[in-house]
Known about the structure:
Number of helices: 15
Strand content: 5-15%
Number of domains: 3
Largest sheet: 6 strands, parallel
Radius of gyration: 24 Å
Number of strands: 13
Amino acid sequence: MLKTYIEKPDSNIKFILYCYFPKEIKGRKSVSKDDIQAMLDTEDINLISKYIVYIMPPDDPQIQQIADKKRKTKEDKELLKKYYSNHNRQCKIDLDDFINNKFELIIGESFEELENSIISDFQSEGFSKEDVCDLIYPNAINLISKLSIKSADPERITSKEQLMQQLQNTKKTAITRWTKELSNYKTLLKKRQSQLSNGLNNNMRKRYFFIDANAIEDFSEEIVIFLKEFVDTYCHKPKLQNPALFCFMNLTHEEFKEIVSRLYSKGIEVETGIKGNRFFKDAFLRTPKRNTLDNWMQFRLRVCIENDAMKDILQEDKPDDLFIISKNCPAGYDLTDINVEFIDINNFNELRYLLKLVKEI
C-alpha cells in the first residue's frame, strides 16, 4: 500500500487493510507512526527487495541500480539487505498524511468464517459443496479479480446473473495468485493437476509454453533445471514424443543466449531459429532428425523470445496444448482450436507439480 501511495501521490485512493486477529474487537483500529516504522525496519530479504527499496530509496547509485532491476538474483537481494542493515532508513513519504488521510485498518471476520459464508451462499444456488470448493469459488475469485484491475469504472461492473452464468460454464480450476490465498489451495493444485493429467499422459501431443520471466521467482536460477526435468519426462522418447516449444516473455536477448548456453552445458540441444542475427520461422519449426535405435533426437526443445513471428507460428502450426504461465494472457494471438491452459503461479515448484514432474510439493 505504501509503495502504491508513492507511485500515485495525487490519487484519491483510500487504502483499507482488512484483518483478523482472534483477540481483537471487530471494527476500525488506529495505527501509529511508530507501528508503521517498526514494519519498515524489517530484515526480511524479500520485503526489502520488493518494497523497502521503493519506500526508502538508497542513497548509493550502485545500490539504486540493483534496486531498479525487475528480476533480482539472490546475490542482489543479499547486497540490498546488507546495505539497509548498515544505513539509516529515510522514508520517502509523509507517514502522517498516509495514516491520517489515506489509510484505514479494519478488524473483521476470520478467513474461515468468510469462506464458509461464501461457500454456503453458492450451495444455496444449487451447486454441490465439492463443485463449489474445487471449481465455483476459486473461479469466482479469479473472475472478480480480473474485473477489479480494469481501469474504466463501467468495465468493473457485473451482476449476479452474469457471474453465475460464467461460473456454470467453467470446467477448469483457476490457479492464480488470487486463489493461492484460499485455505484449500493445495487441494486446488491437486484438482488442477488431475485436469491436466490426461493431456500430459498422451505422448504425441504437441505442446507450446509461454512463460513470463517476470512472473516467476528466481527465474534465472531455476529455468534451466526446470527445462532439463521437462525434457527428461516429456521429450526423451524419439519414437513417440515431439520437441516442446518454450517462448519466453520479458527476457532480454543476452539473458536468452545465456539460457541456451547453459542448456547446452546440461546436454540439451535446442532449436532457436536464429541464423546469424535473424530469426527464421522455417528453421525454428523444422522437424528434428531421429535415430530411435540409439534413442537420439537432433534437438528436444524449441526455445525463443516472444516476437512478431510467434503470432504466425501459432496460427500456422497450432499446438494441441498451449500453457500460459503468466499473470496475463499475451495479446494478439489466434487461439482458435487450441486447448489453452492458463496458469498464474509465481514459482517453479508448483509448476513442476502441476506438470507431474514431481509427486509432491
